[in-house]
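Narrative summary of target 7.
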Amino acid sequence: MLPFQLNIQNLSKSYHGRCIWKGLNLTLSSGRIYCLMGPSGIGKTTLFRILLGLEQADSGSFFLSPSQQERLTAVFQEDRLCEAFSPLDNIMAAAGKALSKDRAIAELCRLLPSESITRPVCTLSGGMKRRTAILRSLLAPSCGILMDEPFTGLDENTKYQVIEYIKEKAGQRLLLISTHQEEDVELLEGILLRPFEEFAAK
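Modeled conformation, tokenized:
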């Protein structure tokens, strides 16, 4: 994958006449992990939804330069898994032909108990579901990954394990992760972003 940038230019968003932020500008480079911080309600999830095409900004634009063939993937605050599918089925549905079944099993076993990977997701604990959602985002083909508070529901030891896995698998992709914990920024060796302090509506 050739180096690229995500360019966010003069992005503004409001809800029901209330401006959330205006004139947001960011340039993010591939091969790096960025950690987005700010209090709840300031618009982190809204920014992710706009970048994923799930919501429209009021004005401004964003683009990848140079453009990439692969899409952005995401870990939402909700796991958004197919509950009747197993973790393995969820991974294979997202990865398609880019990942063999044997490789998917091997990767799942790094973060999940082996007996859980063929069970329906609805029978798993919240922490197992969270790890499955993170694995799905990392193993699906993508040029970048947006993770919205990905460590919610994970105990400390599991969080450290997951963070090491994320750093290993990030590669030359762009990662943008929202978190409330400065400790997470240090563990991820990420670049701290507080863009909303400057661009939030006054």
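The radius of gyration is 17 Å.
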